[in-house]
């Protein structure tokens, strides 16, 4: 099972942490002619090989790399401005499915969970933290892209990337509170954020902004809570 966690971690690092937005934009413009597409694909293969850290898995890394490239190319040529959100999730689901398929055929999925050692928990934590800090922010951004365009028409002074880092901190805090069993602290965090946001929402008198912030906050906290519960479940089975 630890191999599956590492394959997922390689995917998260390659698709989110090591893929700048400028690469995504150029890939969408030039598609198969974009050099960043092939660098992105190569990074995926190298990440799989490095995380598994065994040369005998070179063929697995190569096949996952090629599969990832084919899936990305299909998305690039079939998506348009109206279907970007749908294709983003279709792309990610297909990547995850391909990882599961390769893991199933390459490793023995019938291995009992007792083969996990306590040291393997670190991979669960690393994957969860990367998901909450980098991946979740992009997921929420994609989900709320249409509403964000509407709000961006109104000029408003704000710190650069402030919302991004606030979201990362709140998800890490929620995740940490769940791991230590302090559920009441999550309620305190929600209340504290509500107090700071109340003045802005009251002054703006903008129903769209209020709804946007509320949906974003609930998504952020919901994903963090779900991830924390999943990690606890995985740790219990080790």
UniProtKB/TrEMBL annotation:
Residue ranges crossing the lipid bilayer per the database entry: 36-52, 58-78, 87-107, 122-147, 168-192, 212-235
UniProt keyword Transmembrane, yes or no: yes
Pfam families tied to this protein: DUF3307
Keywords: Membrane, Transmembrane, Transmembrane helix
Family matches, as InterPro entries: Phage_phiKZ_Orf197
Name recorded for this polypeptide: DUF3307 domain-containing protein
